[in-house]
C-alpha cells in the first residue's frame, strides 16, 4: 500500500543547481541571494519591502517587535492556529488573547476579536486559515477604529488574493513561513512583507542582533564600525536557503493553480456527500489551498474524529489535524488562565476536522483514492 502524505515539497534539479551556485560563490549568508529573494517576494506580493528571516516564527516575532509590542501589551490571535502565532507575543512579554473563529471559514471571527479589545490591546493577528484570506476588511475597520496594529500570519496563504490585492499586502506586516509543508519551502525560512520602510529597517536590524549595519553594507562601505541599538536575535536566512526559496517562488503560480484544481476535484466529489463538508470559500477571495480541510457530520457518521483519523491512516492516507485550539494547550492554560469552553466554535470544529492530502505533485487519481476511502468510511450515510 502506497502512503499518501498530507503534504510534500516539490523539488527538482533547479533547486539543486541554485544551491550549487551559492555554495561555489563563496557568499553563504547576507549576500546577493538574500537580496534577490527579498526583491522577488516583494515583487510577487506587490509589497514595497520583504525581509527574509530564519523561520515563520522569527517572522512573527520580528513583526511584533517592529511594532514596539512589549511587556503588558495584549495581542489578539485566533484559536485555530499554530502555537507560533501566540508565542511571538509571549517572546516579547506581551499577552496573547485568544479569539474564536468563524464556523464556516475557521479564520478569526472579527466580532469575537473586537469583543476582546481592552485598553492594553495593541494588535490583532489574523491567520489565513488553510490558505483562504480572512475577513481583512472587517479586521481593518476594527483596527482603524480602535487604533490597533494589524498583522497577518500568512504562513498558509502565499499565492492567495483578497479582491484585487495579493496576500502579503493585506496587513501592515505579513508573515510567511518556508517550512517544507508550506506553499513554497527553503527547508527553513521566513519572510515579512510590508509597505513601511521604517518597519522593514527595524526588522532587518532585529534579525541581525539589533546591529545597525549588515554585513553586505559594511562590505560595501569597507567599514568595521557597527552599533547595537536593539536587543535582536540571529534570525538571518542564509543565501543557501534564499536560493532555494527563490527557485520555488518562480514555480509558485503553477503550484497554486494545481492546488486549486485538486481542491476543485475534492469539492466536486464531496458535493454529493452530506456527511462531509469542505470549508466555505467567501466571495472575492482567491484561496491558496495550503490545506484541504473538511468538517465531518459526526452524528450522521456515528464515529468520532479520532476513529476517522485512524481509519484514513490505516489505508495509507496521512490526514492531519489543524489545529488543537490554543486554549487547550497546558502551557497557555497555566500562563494565561485559559481553558476548554472559551472558544466554542473552534472547539466544535476541532472535534470534526481533518486536513486531507493536498500538494502540487498529487495526481487526480490520488484525490480519487482519498474520496473513495472517504466513501467507504462514511458508509451508507454518504
Ligand atoms: C508554519 C506556521 C508558522 C511557523 O512557521 P515556521 O517556519 O515553522 O516557524 C506560524 N504560523 C502558522 C499559521 C504556520 O502554519
Query: Main sheet, how many strands, which sense, barrel?
Result: 7 strands, mixed
Class per helix and strand makeup: alpha/beta
Instruction: Give the beta-strand count.
Output: 13
Name the ligand types.
pyridoxal-5'-phosphate
The whole-angstrom Rg is: 21 Å
The backbone outline, from C-alpha atoms, is globular
Count up the helices.
Answer: 14
Give the fraction of residues assigned to helices: 40-55%
- Uncertain stretches: none
Question: What average pLDDT do the residues reach?
Answer: 96
Q: Give the topology string: H per helix, E per strand.
A: HHEHEHEHEHEEEEEHHHEEEHHHHEH
Please give the order of strands in the largest beta sheet. Answer: 1-9-8-5-4-2-3
Strand content: 5-15%
Q: Termini separation (Å)?
A: 25 Å
Would you kindly provide a written description of the structure presented here, covering whatever features stand out?
This protein is of the alpha/beta class and about 375 residues long. The protein contains 14 helices and 13 strands. It has helices at about 15-25, 30-45, 55-65, 85-90, 110-115, 135-145, 195-205, 215-220, 240-270, 300, 305-315, 330-335, 345-350, 365-380, and strands at about 50-55, 75-80, 95-100, 120-125, 150-155, 160, 165, 175, 190-195, 275-280, 285, 290-295, 355. The strands form three sheets. A seven-stranded mixed beta sheet has the order 1-9-8-5-4-2-3, with helices on both faces. Strands 7-6-11 form a three-stranded antiparallel beta sheet, with no helix packed on it. A three-stranded antiparallel beta sheet has the order 10-12-13, with helices on one face. α4 (about 85-90) links the parallel β2 (about 75-80) and β3. α1 (about 15-25) runs antiparallel to α9, α2 packs parallel to α9 (about 240-270) and α9 (about 240-270) crosses α14 (about 365-380). The radius of gyration is 21 Å and the shape is globular. It starts with 12 loop residues before the first helix and ends with a helix. The structure holds pyridoxal-5'-phosphate.
Amino acid at each position: 500500500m502506497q502512503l499518501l502524505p498530507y503534504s510534500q515539497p516539490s523539488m527538482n534539479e533547479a533547486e539543486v543547481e541554485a544551491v550549487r551556485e551559492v555554495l561555489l560563490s563563496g557568499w553563504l549568508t547576507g549576500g546577493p541571494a538574500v537580496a534577490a529573494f527579498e526583491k522577488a517576494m516583494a515583487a510577487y506580493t506587490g509589497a514595497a519591502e520583504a525581509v527574509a528571516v530564519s523561520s515563520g516564527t522569527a517572522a512573527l516575532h520580528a513583526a511584533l517587535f517592529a511594532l514596539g509590542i512589549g511587556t503588558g501589551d495584549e495581542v489578539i490571535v485566533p484559536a485555530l492556529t499554530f502555537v507560533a502565532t501566540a508565542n511571538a507575543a509571549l517572546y516579547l512579554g506581551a499577552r496573547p488573547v485568544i479569539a474564536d473563529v468563524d464556523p464556516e471559514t475557521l479564520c478569526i471571527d472579527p466580532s469575537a476579536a473586537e469583543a476582546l479589545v481592552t485598553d492594553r490591546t495593541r494588535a490583532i493577528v489574523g491567520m489565513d486559515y488553510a490558505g483562504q484570506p480572512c475577513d481583512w476588511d472587517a479586521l481593518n475597520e476594527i483596527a482603524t477604529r480602535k487604533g490597533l496594529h494589524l498583522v497577518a500570519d500568512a504562513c498558509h496563504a502565499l499565492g492567495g488574493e483578497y479582491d484585487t490585492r495579493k496576500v502579503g499586502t493585506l496587513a501592515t506586516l505579513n508573515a510567511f513561513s518556508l517550512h517544507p509543508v508550506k506553499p513554497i519551502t527553503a527547508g527553513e525560512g521566513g519572510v515579512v512583507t510590508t509597505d513601511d520602510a521604517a518597519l522593514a529597517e527595524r526588522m532587518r536590524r532585529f534579525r541581525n542582533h539589533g546591529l545597525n549595519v549588515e554585513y553586505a553594507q559594511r562590505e560595501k562601505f569597507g567599514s568595521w564600525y557597527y552599533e547595537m541599538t536593539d536587543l535582536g536575535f540571529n534570525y538571518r536566512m542564509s543565501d543557501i536557503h534564499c536560493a532555494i526559496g527563490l527557485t520555488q517562488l518562480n514555480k509558485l503560480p503553477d503550484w497554486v493553480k494545481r492546488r486549486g484544481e485538486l481542491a476543485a476535484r475534492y469539492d466536486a466529489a464531496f458535493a454529493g456527500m452530506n456527511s462531509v463538508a469542505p470549508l466555505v470559500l467567501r466571495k472575492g477571495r482567491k484561496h491558496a489551498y495550503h490545506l484541504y480541510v473538511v468538517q465531518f457530520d459526526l452524528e450522521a457518521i456515528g464515529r468520532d474524529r479520532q476513529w476517522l483519523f485512524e481509519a484514513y491512516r490505516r489505508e495509507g492516507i496521512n490526514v492531519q489535524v489543524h489545529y488543537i485550539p490554543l486554549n487547550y494547550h497546558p502551557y497557555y492554560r497555566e500562563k494565561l488562565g485559559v481553558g476548554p469552553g472559551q472558544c466554542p466554535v473552534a472547539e466544535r470544529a476541532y472535534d470534526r476536522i481533518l486536513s486531507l492530502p493536498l500538494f502540487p505533485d498529487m495526481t487526480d487519481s490520488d484525490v480519487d483514492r482519498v474520496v473513495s476511502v472517504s466513501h467507504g468510511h462514511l458508509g451508507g450515510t454518504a
